[in-house]
Design goal:
The protein is mainly alpha-helical and 381 residues long. 40% of the residues lie in helices and 10% in strands. It contains 15 helices and 9 strands. It is elongated.
Length: 381
């Protein structure tokens, strides 16, 4: 049996405001691992928002093969200094060795140590812990990922899901430190088949036995505005990074974990969330329909059709690219133009480059519905 830990993370009583479309797998992941990310911020000075966004992106919200089979949520490979369990997976055209962890929390801790102990990431710790944009571009600059759009993807996820909320919550040292003390106490208990609850230290008088509810969008937005107007959040004191690095747990702590029972995220693998630019999408599989996608992503059929510029009567087909959030006004990639081919349509081109079809017409000085012809050059931005 797996040890279940329910933690309340509403430390400061700040509601989350609605920012664009929110996907259910992402919200489930955030709710499950937000506390882990906050712990990493307090211990090592890495923004909670960055940790969560990287975990979401690298692990497909905990549903990737690597995450499910090795609890590796950050795509960290073995490298020469890893002596612990490993997992082989296909990456960049070849079989690669990835680190395998006993628990997801170990993956989060190793991700922090990976950044803290490598010189090429030193400059990140001179940045404001609440400046997630600078951290996102810094990770890309330091070579964490080869994807040219890596920083933009992290920023989009953070802003769509208001992950900077957790940066501010973890910045309240008194409450966040108490949260960690409670967490570590429970971790050391090594009790199974029990459910623990950490109280909301800001205002709750009694422990609750359910996760924090998600308020309706209008209520969250109104509450957030009023709260921000009357409350200022203290910035965390600058971290002494050399001291953090010196006191950080050695890699051998993680390598020494035994391959016993493994804690896995409970979400079911359905679709892999991919990205074109910073816009998430999936590829339709056999049996897909609007109902099962609505259940998986909490997107109504009408919303899914609108995002993808599909007529009401259109039925999903295997291999269709289906975007899960609004497409952009321009293409974020390197290409500036597209030369129309025999089987092209304005819709297929808009899907290929993650540009809203009506915006694609506008970019090219055309009216919606105007015909295109083979060889025609279409502007993409």
């Amino acid at each position: 049996m797996k040890k279940i830990l329910l933690l309340q993370v509403l430390l400061l009583g700040i509601g989350l405001c609605q920012a664009g479309i929110r996907l259910k797998p992402y919200e489930d992941y955030i709710h499950q691992y937000a506390t882990d990310a906050m712990i990493q911020q307090v211990k090592y000075g890495i923004p909670s928002s960055i940790t969560l966004a990287q975990g979401l992106l690298e692990s497909n919200a905990g549903n990737s093969e690597l995450a499910r089979n090795s609890n590796n949520h950050f795509g960290i490979k073995c490298h020469n200094n890893w002596e612990g369990p490993s997992y082989s997976s296909w990456d960049d055209g070849e079989m690669s060795c990835f680190r395998k962890y006993k628990s997801v929390l170990d993956s989060y801790t190793d991700h922090s140590l990976f950044l803290v102990t490598r010189q090429r990431y030193d400059f990140l710790f001179q940045l404001d812990v609440k400046d997630y944009r600078a951290w996102a571009f810094g990770l890309r600059q330091a070579g964490y990922a080869t994807d040219k759009q890596y920083a933009q993807k992290l920023i989009k996820i953070i802003e769509d899901y208001d992950l900077d909320y957790y940066d501010r919550a973890a910045g309240n040292h008194k409450k966040a430190r108490k949260l960690i003390e409670e967490w570590e106490h429970l971790q050391n208990e090594e009790l199974q088949d029990d459910v623990y609850v950490v109280n909301d230290y800001a205002s709750r008088q009694e422990a609750e036995t359910s996760p924090a509810p998600t308020a309706p969008a209008k209520e969250r937005k109104a509450r957030t505005r009023s709260t921000r107007q009357r409350r200022s959040i203290d910035r965390p004191a600058p971290l002494k990074r050399n001291e953090v690095a010196r006191k950080a747990k050695d890699y051998s702590y993680l390598a020494a974990t035994q391959e016993g029972e493994t804690e896995h995220i409970t979400a079911t693998l359905n679709h892999t969330i991919l990205y074109r630019g910073s816009v998430p999408y999936i590829v339709a599989q056999y049996g897909d329909n609007y109902n099962n996608l609505a259940d998986e992503f909490d997107l109504s059929p009408a919303k899914l059709r609108k995002i993808n510029n599909l007529p009401k009567q259109y039925q999903i087909r295997i291999g269709d690219i289906l975007y899960l959030n609004k497409k952009g006004k321009t293409w974020e990639g390197d290409e500036e133009t597209h030369i129309v081919r025999e089987d092209d349509s304005m819709h297929s081109i808009s899907q290929r480059y993650a540009i809203d079809m009506n915006e694609l017409y506008r970019l090219n000085g055309m009216k919606t519905g105007d015909p295109i012809h083979i060889g025609q050059s279409l502007k993409l931005r």
